[in-house]
Design a protein that fits this description.
Layout (H helix, E strand, L loop, with lengths): L1 H22 L2 E12 L6 E9 L4 E8 L6 E8 L9 E9 L4 E6 L10 H5 L2 E7 L10 E7 H6 L15
Antiparallel strand pairs: 1-2, 1-8, 2-3, 3-6, 4-5, 4-7, 7-8
Length: 168
């Protein structure tokens, strides 16, 4: 019995240390942006950008209304959400439709330019979550929102339309 109790205590200590290591990867600086439904699907959520201790960032996407076993592509686009054919600044890790969650550590953009947390929150950009990365469903934006400078410049009177993405 004492042996089992000792194993349990060691396991809790190990788990606690692992959890603290993850928390210690971040400075505590973070910015959260709203992601609005982009189509007939009732999918919305938030994008949180957290500063890592090395100055880079992690982007966390949390959506509600997703289900199934799909991987939903996520793009960081230059310009605001209404910009048509906006360039892709970075491909983020897809959202797991079962959990509605995506996490991406980002230290450079698609053109290999280095990017920090401070750069991201000052970038004129938006995030779009797509239904698919191929075919006609590629143009269906499930959710999206402005980030960085685009978020501070967003229209104050209602939601603007979503611009279509640049096909590659």
């Amino acid at each position: 019995m004492k042996k089992l109790l000792g194993i349990a205590v060691c396991g809790m200590i190990l788990f606690s240390c692992q959890e603290n290591e993850t928390v210690n990867d971040f400075t505590g600086n973070e910015t959260t942006y709203s992601l609005q439904p982009g189509s007939q699907y009732s999918i919305a959520g938030i994008a949180t950008i957290k500063e890592r201790r090395d100055g880079t960032a992690s982007v966390f996407i949390t959506l509600t209304g997703t289900s199934g076993d799909n991987k939903l592509p996520v793009h960081l686009h230059l310009g605001n959400i209404a910009t048509p054919a906006a360039d892709v600044a970075a491909l983020l890790n897809p959202v797991d439709s079962k959990t509605g969650i995506s996490e991406t550590k980002i230290s450079q953009l698609a053109d290999e330019t280095s990017v920090t947390y401070a750069d991201l929150i000052n970038l004129e950009a938006c995030i779009k979550v797509h239904l698919s990365d191929t075919g006609a469903e590629r143009d269906i934006i499930l959710a999206g929102g402005d980030i960085g400078l685009s978020a501070t410049k967003s229209a104050s009177s209602g939601r603007v339309g979503f611009g279509t993405c640049k096909s590659e």
